[in-house]
Amino acid sequence: MESYSKSYDVIVVGGGNAAFSAAISAREKGMGVLVVEKGSQDKRGGNSYFTDGAIRMAYGDLEGLRSVYSDLKDEDYDRVDMPVYGEKEYYDDIMRVTNGKSEPALAKVLTSQSYPTIKWMQSHGVEFIVNENQYFEKDNKMSFWGGLPVKTYQKGIGLMTAWWKRADELGVDVLYNTKGTSLVKSDNAITGLVVEQDGKEMQIDTKSVILACGGFEASEQKRMKYIGDEWKNAVVRGTEHNTGDGLDMAIEAGATPIGDWSACHAHTTDYNAPRVGDFEKPGDIYKKSSYPLGLIVNNEGVRFVDEGADFRNYTYAKYGKETLKQPEQKAFQLYDQKVRPLLRVEYELEEASVVKADSLEELAEKMNVPKEKFLETIHTYNASVQEGDYDPSVKDGKSTKGLTPAKSNWALTFDEAPFYAYPVTCGITFTFGGIKVNDQAEVLDSEEQPIGGLYAAGEMVGGLFYENYPGGSGLMSGAVFGKLSGETAATYVESVTTKA
Q: What is the per-residue pLDDT across 63-80, written as a single tens digit (0 to 9) for each?
């Protein structure tokens, strides 16, 4: 096998936020770093390139955000109503939505290091702005909700552009169109990476490898094997390159698989969205996230979830999965004119599929659902709506009574024309199953011992998310464990270099 002309202290496999966080972290510690990117240069960036940039952190209170936001002026802060959200609130959210299954040590790393990591990202040129989708105007105030008030400037595109610029400034090498295929080990320590480039295999010598190349969401075969046959035709919301290569390599090298391999981050997405992420139209423009304000019915005109069970940040990952279970894997989000002005910007885009009608009967016909069943669903729902104050910036308790499934918050009658129906299906974003790491991002073998020189970050970290996850935690986890893995790898390389 051909050997690459240069060896490295650290090789990072992957090309998204986690990978470049790791690469830059190791490089600033003085390491010689190579990033191995499976995609071409014009299709780089992994899933991170497609995200809308929302990133969850333990900011504390409004004062904690003053040095984070780049787009708010001093006078703007007088209009901001910002709930407290510290490490405890973040940790509790993770444990709540995963039903207490998240590995405590990993959850504590994520929550405790989230804010410091944001500041570190800023120091390398990543810019953060107000997440306009996380507040409602109320009494001339920006009333924030859901613990997710920050996003990256220009979404995932801006995030990755900043990382690429900084990596270039620091002298991080990058190989494109290069797929990692196997790890080289000697005495339970990593000594190289075998890659495939232009149909040829070659070995790159290294002292350590950081695996940050995503889950298996883009592999139809693995989706069906681990999550279920119904996932065969799920829309892939990000890159086509996340096919589980890193997981395969790690497990072959002795890593322990762990976590919820049967679950994933799924989201309701436009029924006519591209079947795989379109690099010409990134930015997460096809998702449909305002459903707590409306109703959701399936292709038979029947509701199947409690749209208002919680803020969307805590339900969209599991409601996407519920949509996949419906006939033809299709559903409709419904809104009347009362709530139409409150919808997120993606509902206004030209790419958004929508039918509009001036009566419920006409809406049913345009949706091509059974009219009588649909009208029964709406009339039964309307009759169950209870009185109360409506406030989309809090869980207002304005609910239904005697309805199954209930609508627990934000229940308004659906009766003001015109009416809108947005057809949606399930889009898969990333998988939850991964490999076992400790609180230093070291990959562990079957005896809970670190495999020397092997680390993981991003989607590959198993044991953190089960069944569900708090929105914005994927990007944050990628950055936190990316930064940590780079630091830990650098310490390891220094130790083995000294011994040599």
A: 999 999 999 988 999 999
